[in-house]
Amino acid sequence: MKPNDVLYKNPSIPIDIRVNDLLSRMTLKEKIMQINQYTLGTNNIENNKGVEVKQIPAEIGSLIYFPTDPELRNRMQRHAMNDSRLGIPILFGYDCIHGFRTIFPIPLAQACSWNVPLFEKGCRVAAQECRMSGVDWTFSPMIDVSRDPRWGRVAESFGEDPYANATFGSAAVRGYQGRNMSDSLSIAACLKHYVGYGASEAGRDYVYTEISRQSLWDTYLPPFEKCVQAGAATLMSSFNNISGIPSSANHYTLTEVLRKKWGFRGLMVSDWGAVEQLVHQNMARDLKEAGQLALNAGVDMDMMSHAYDTYLETLVDEGKISTSTLDEAVRRTLRVKFQLGLFEHPYTPVSKAEDRFLRPQSVAAARQMAAESMVLLKNEHQVLPLKQGLKILVTGPVADATHDLLGCWWGHGEDGDIEKLNESIQKEFGSQAEVRYIKGCDFDGTDERQFKQVEKLSRWADIVITCVGEKGSWSGENNSHADIALPTIQRHLIQCVKASAKQLVLVLANGRPMIITDEVAMADAVIEMWQPGLYGGSAVAGILSGRINPSGRLAMTFPYSQGQIPIYYGRRHSARPHQGFYKDQTSEPLYPFGYGLSYTTFAYGEPKTASHEVKAGDKFDVIIPITNTGQRDGLETVFWYVSDPYGKITRPAQELKHFEKKLIKKGETVDFVFHVNVNRDFGYVDSEGKRFVEPGDIMIFVGDKKLKFTIK
Ligand code: BGC
Predict the structure, then answer these.
(1) Tens digits of residue pLDDT in 208-263
(2) Which of 143, 445, 539, 622 could be 609's S-S partner, Cβ–Cβ 3.0 to 4.6 Å?
(3) Which domains, ranges and CATH numbers included, belong to the chain?
(4) Distance from the CA of 391 to the center of ligand 1, in angstroms?
């Protein structure tokens, strides 16, 4: 028989027919192996050091792939293709979270750029580097609405807002998957962590999450719904316990919502060990029961729990898992492999590292993203951009940092490619300034021996750039912090500089909003650079010199104090608008969502719209002219919020519904448009996800303007 006579091997036949043909040929054991994921290669992620799978069966469904080139993949794939009865290719996955080798800023920082096309371009770069290196599937984007900066994983999210997570998440799906996942530069995306993981109690990782059905539907599910509509091929079930039923055993979210309501046909993989953890969560008696609960709830593939490979055969024999449930999970796994074209192209062409990595356009995109994601938080008396001819002191542990600038999940980023701040600043100013550098202190510890010298040099300098923040390993998974202030030694360094410097600029590199209230008060200017990936050095230097006009805006609120947490803009109204505030300090955050300064100024004109009376089903435009009234060109992000004065279900005081970033040249006026869809933007969901539009008044806020509409 020629290969094309076997239906599943014939590429001209529709995928669903190929899937069913292949499934009909599989034994129970072969089916079970398809829905397991092991690892291959050296795992450099501390939390996931599992037992290296030495003897990987040729029938394995998927592997997490750690090398940077395709050689090992191809060897393993050959084993699967040649040594298994049916020759089913393996699906190779990897956590490419903000770049594979060309490392972009952490996702939270990228969200602060509000530049969705640029973000999508970055995901394309990641996809190209992955696919050419032997990776078919990334466990990204993370679209967990994150409102507690004590939770280390806020670094991986797009911040506190559901719409922002939905928008960046869909862009990631488009960027990774391209027009067609089977092309040689695209990979499958994985939406994670489904669902509500970001609601972790008190910011602790892996813990219980109390999420009402209403919040599930209005806050945590919307990003997933939008990204499923964008065509995401896979999802990952999360670690958290949703109000009593852990996510990875939650039939309501995994099957009733995702499959039945949204019609998702792709693959659901568990998070690492999430099936086994159902035992720790008191949901399952043992690993066997955990496997039974997870698969029956809708987790198709088991990542590293070894529940499915160990117990499924018995569970099927005992009638605890039906053949149709097992078959459906296998079907979903196979479908992704067909969509990726793995049956036709199981091997990755071998290429030179320089042809795959750090291509000029990739580097350019990462540089632009580093520049656009930084947020200017303070600039008293226009101390920035710096004047020429100054004596500049650069100090602080971040100033000569390399690896720490990559943040968590640094992929295969290499320290040698990272721009150091002190060197970049020196380079930026060249002979236009006298730049000196002293480290001052480490990220933590108690060694203050250099402080005397710091004091002396601070007196010498006209301005001191103090670069402080978090080590890369302080945020990300399993990195909850009860105290998110700067470590004592770094606060002492700032105090030491302040005591003798004429002017103080703070540059912060961190993976979460921190408590910086006292330090900001001491500084003349503050730049939040986040963990910027490879090219933060030249971006900060460009902002200091004025070559770059900062345009980032916060995607997550900066609390004034630890006691305010959680604090986020989308809260519901209080029963007493005039009372209930903290008695001992302000109830306002230090910096709200959407905040960020520019070197130019913008004036918002009067918004225009055809009519203020609308009805369900209507679509119309609101246009606002914005003028650059300052002395230089600048990028402005316009945020459009909706606010419903009252209704049968109360809503957040304001909800972001649209944003757009555009360049406005000095003196020019540019129109920004919100294409309103009444059902989508003025409507709301109830606790079962039913969308409704309620007659009555509704407001749109944009900048300092507001418009009132009446829904008839
Ligand atoms: C993380 C996931 C990640 C997975 C695979 C887990 O510990 O929670 O986000 O994709 O490991 O590395």
Answers:
(1) 999 999 999 999 999 999 999 999 999 999 999 999 999 999 999 999 999 999 99
(2) 622
(3) 3-94+189-339 (3.20.20.300), 370-564 (3.40.50.1700), 602-711 (2.60.40.10)
(4) 46
